[in-house]
Amino acid sequence: MRSLLCAAGAAGVLLFGSAAGAVAASGGEPERFTIKDPRITESSGLAASRAHPGIYWTHNDSDDGPYVYAVDSRTGRTVATVTMRGVGDPRDVEAISVGPDGDLYVGDIGDNLGGSWDHVWIYRFPEPKQLRDQTVTATQYVVKYADGARDAEAMMVHPKTGRVYVVSKKEDGGAALYAGPERLSTSGPNVFGRVSGIDMWVTDGAFSPDGSRLMLRSYFGGRMFRWQDGRPKDDIGSVGVPIQGQGESVTFTPDGRTLMFGSEGADSQVEPVGLSGRQLPESASDGGSAGPGGADGNGSDGSGDSSDSSDKSNPAVTGVIVIGIAIAGILAIRRRGRR
Question: Which of 212, 209, 275, 210 has its CA nearest to residue 21?
């Protein structure tokens, strides 16, 4: 359960972050849509389909079951419900990502007991070729952290190497990015090692389709990083995150030019934010192509933190207006009372 106090702390991003490098989506770009399925009231992860244009995969947070939903962004309606077989009873599903092999990875990585579970799970299955209700057999991986139990909401699969990364929430000394083994294994626990510290309260993250950018979001803000050699090398500025009731998810569109931000709640909206300048992935930049920034290297799990921001932020609006918006957003957050 994300507490109101935690959200209030995250709202500080509004005062000091800006929309540098981000522009509102306009003609020809993806449009906002509403998730209309009454079963989806806690959309906590979002992933753009590789196989089906305009389709976004999502799931509920807790107390739903082993279900993943395909939502058509043109209508907001669910066009397929996938039931995962062989994964037991999911506890706190927080993230979803598409790997380079076209498989969907579902992160049952949350910990409503504040980081006390000794292991969490990741589920994996091929993205269905046909959009229809179906049951699939999923592979289940046990995940542990090298430095002890963690509560996390962000899981990303690198689109070139397939290595899985998790970002813990900012508790007990700060958030951190963790890297899994080069290949996940079902023969025993997969130990994720710390790569770098992350100075924000992270509710989701996503790699750009070319692997050259890592986007991390919080309830009210977000930051873009250049990805190189298995770690975030440069902080290239804040991203303007839409004000949402409980901002929980983010994904890149397949062309890498737009971020789609999702929220929990009934009839929740998915909002586009276009990228520009250095925040564009290398393959989406004018005249650019995927280069060294997209190389994941050996996915080192060393403890060196990412470098300081090279793109200092500026306030997007006056402090008074920002505080008012932040308070309105905070008041919209509904407590679910599980912690």
Answer: 275
For residue 277, give the nearest of 286, 268, 269 by alpha carbon.
Answer: 286
Selection from 66, 82, 87, 61 nearest residue 140 by Cα = 87
What the block records as the tokens of 60 is 């509920």
Amino acid 137: pLDDT = 98
Reduced to 3 states (helix: H, G, I; strand: E, B; else coil), residue 10 is: helix
Which two tokens mark 332? 């919209």
- Could you give the CA distance from residue 193 to residue 200 in angstroms, rounded to a whole number? 19
Nearest CA among 86, 90, 126, 119 for reference residue 105: 126
Using CA atoms, how far apart are residues 180 and 194, in angstroms rounded to an integer? Answer: 9
Q: Say what the pLDDT of residue 213 is.
A: 97
- The tens digit of pLDDT for each residue in 53-98 reads 999 999 999 889 999 999 999 999 999 999 999 998 899 999 999 9
Virtual torsion, Cα 306, 15, 277, 259, nearest 10 deg: 90
Q: Which helix (H) or strand (E) segment is 107 a member of? A: strand 103-108
